[in-house]
Each structure stands twice: as structure tokens, then as C-alpha cells.
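Appendix C: a fully annotated inverse folding record. The material below is reproduced so that readers can follow the format used throughout the book. The structure is listed first as C-alpha cells, followed by the designed sequence.
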């Protein structure tokens, strides 16, 4: 395609995305489901109280949904004959607690039938996950609609791989409309949750990645004692041993000590494009919260379905019957 033809096309795509985001609003359900946010807040806390890891799953599922084909709840769809879902992508290994989004959606449906999308429920539950773990309140615009399908190959291609280099990571953020500082802030979500050994052992065996503090590497080897793992392995190491269930800036302090788990974690504190932001967030938890909230706002408005696009699913794991 000639450059003269390509530029108008790109401008049209950008304009479409901006228009879609503009159709979202903070009071979208003011008349149709005014109790929505309180319902999601209450149920999310109940699930967190019963299953503490629901909070971390909610945050991670928000990230992985928006990072692949936009914030459309496609990550929640099960596979069907002829459709292998995003859940099956290696880039979504370790994702879990999908079933609880149907629990939250069930309460929403009882109050407001056929009104609220799973995509909006997912965004709000992710926001509540951050709050339940002590993080900042994040204003979330609403009005998304749900995808009709989910494709493993999209997640394979669009989500960042565990061993991606910093240029790839920053390019991915740029595609999502997120600049470097906000990208570093988003990765602060690694302060909670855990890293499965299968995503870690290549940095420990046969030799330790020099970017990892050697004493810490020895601890990680206790958690992951073999270079051989499998898809069902439950071995893991918590990302933050100091405040494992606290959403705070300690992640950045750990990076400065050489205690990052994934390659991207270690690279953040070493790459000249990102290391100053790591130091700034490590020094100021409030500033981290501000930039993280700003980044989530940008992310959750990326490439959404609105108006008559997609559908409003009754059950989050399956599209509505035709």
C-alpha cells in the first residue's frame, strides 16, 4: 500500500479508537443499573475474603484482557469446537479464577438483567482487586460491550512473553497508547502475585542470570529446585516476600536490589529508558499510585466495543446462544 493511502487509513483507525473511548462514561449505568459499582465492590470483597487470590487474579485478568484485542472480556470465554480461546495461550499460563467472574456477573444480572457487559464487570473487579490489596482507587469509565469470540493466536501474538526484551515491552505499551513512565507504573502490578517456576527457571539454570542478586537466586532455587518443570507444576515464588498481598511500591525497591523474577523486571532497573522511573517510584509510593491509576485509565479505554458492537453476555465464559 502506498504511503499516501496508508496515512489516511491509520488516522481513521486512531479516530475510531478515540471515538469508541469517548462513548464510555463514568455514569453510563446511572439509570439502567445505578447500583452496579456497589454490587461489584461488595461481591469482589466477599470473594477476596474467601479466596484472597481473587484480588490478584482480577488485576491480572484485567491486564491480559485489555492487552489482547482490547478490553472486551474475550479472555473469559471458554474454548469451543473450532475456537481455541485466549485462555489456552502460553502467555496466559497461570491465569485462574475465571469462574468467579460469573459469580460477580450473577449478582449483577439478578439486579440488572441483560444490561451490564462482562467487560465492564471485569474492569470494575480489577479496580476492586487493587483496592482490596491496599492500592489506589481508580476511576473507571463504563459502557463496554463483550466480544463474540476469543482466539489463542491473538494472545500468542499480542501479549508480552516472559522473556521479552525491553524494546519489545515498550513497543507493546506504545501500541496500547501508554508511554514509558506509565508502562513502568503498570508493571508495578508485579508487586503482588507470584511467578511460576516454569517462567523462572531459565534465569536460574544452568547458570544464574547475572542481573539477579546471587543470594536471592539461591533462595529462588529453593523454591524452584529443578530446571525441569511442566504445565501442571504448582511451584512458584512470591514476587514480593516482604508485603506479598500488599499493593505498594516495594516491587521497585526489590528491583534495585536485584530481586526481579522475570527478565522484564530485572531490565526495568537497568535499562536507561526505564531505570530513572524505577528509582522515582521506589522513593515515592504516592507518585507510583498516581501514575499507576493514570496508566490503568488509559489501558481500560483501549480498543473497546461500544454501541451495537459485540453483545452483552449473560454468562461471561460463553457467548449468548443465537
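Designed amino acids, in order:
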Amino acid at each position: 500500500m502506498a504511503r499516501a493511502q496508508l496515512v489516511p487509513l491509520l488516522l481513521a483507525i486512531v479516530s475510531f479508537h478515540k471515538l469508541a473511548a469517548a462513548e464510555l462514561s463514568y455514569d453510563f449505568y446511572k439509570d439502567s443499573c445505578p447500583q452496579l459499582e456497589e454490587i461489584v465492590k461488595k461481591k469482589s470483597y466477599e470473594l477476596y475474603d474467601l479466596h484472597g487470590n481473587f484480588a490478584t487474579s482480577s488485576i491480572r485478568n484485567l491486564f491480559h484482557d485489555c492487552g489482547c484485542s482490547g478490553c472486551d472480556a474475550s479472555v473469559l470465554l471458554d474454548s469451543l469446537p473450532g475456537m481455541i480461546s485466549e485462555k489456552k495461550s502460553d502467555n496466559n499460563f497461570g491465569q485462574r479464577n475465571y469462574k468467579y467472574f460469573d459469580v460477580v456477573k450473577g449478582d449483577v444480572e439478578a439486579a440488572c438483567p441483560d444490561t451490564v457487559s462482562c467487560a465492564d464487570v471485569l474492569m470494575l473487579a480489577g479496580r476492586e482487586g487493587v483496592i482490596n490489596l491496599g492500592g489506589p482507587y481508580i476511576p473507571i469509565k463504563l459502557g463496554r460491550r463483550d466480544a463474540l469470540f476469543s482466539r489463542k493466536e491473538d494472545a500468542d501474538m499480542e501479549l508480552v512473553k516472559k522473556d521479552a526484551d525491553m524494546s519489545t515491552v515498550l513497543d507493546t505499551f506504545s501500541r496500547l497508547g501508554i508511554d514509558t513512565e506509565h508502562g513502568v507504573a503498570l508493571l508495578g502490578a508485579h508487586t503482588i502475585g507470584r511467578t511460576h517456576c516454569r517462567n523462572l527457571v531459565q534465569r536460574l539454570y544452568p547458570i544464574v542470570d547475572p542481573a539477579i542478586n546471587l543470594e536471592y537466586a539461591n533462595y529462588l532455587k529453593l523454591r524452584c529446585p529443578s530446571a525441569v518443570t511442566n504445565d501442571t507444576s504448582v511451584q512458584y515464588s512470591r514476587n514480593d516476600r516482604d508485603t506479598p498481598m500488599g499493593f505498594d511500591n516495594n516491587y521497585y525497591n526489590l528491583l534495585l536490589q536485584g530481586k526481579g523474577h522475570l527478565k522484564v523486571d530485572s531490565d526495568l532497573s537497568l535499562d536507561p529508558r526505564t531505570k530513572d522511573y524505577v528509582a522515582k517510584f521506589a522513593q515515592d509510593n504516592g507518585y507510583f499510585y498516581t501514575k499507576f491509576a493514570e496508566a490503568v485509565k488509559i489501558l481500560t479505554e483501549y480498543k473497546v466495543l461500544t454501541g451495537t458492537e459485540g453483545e452483552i453476555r449473560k454468562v461471561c465464559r460463553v457467548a449468548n446462544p443465537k
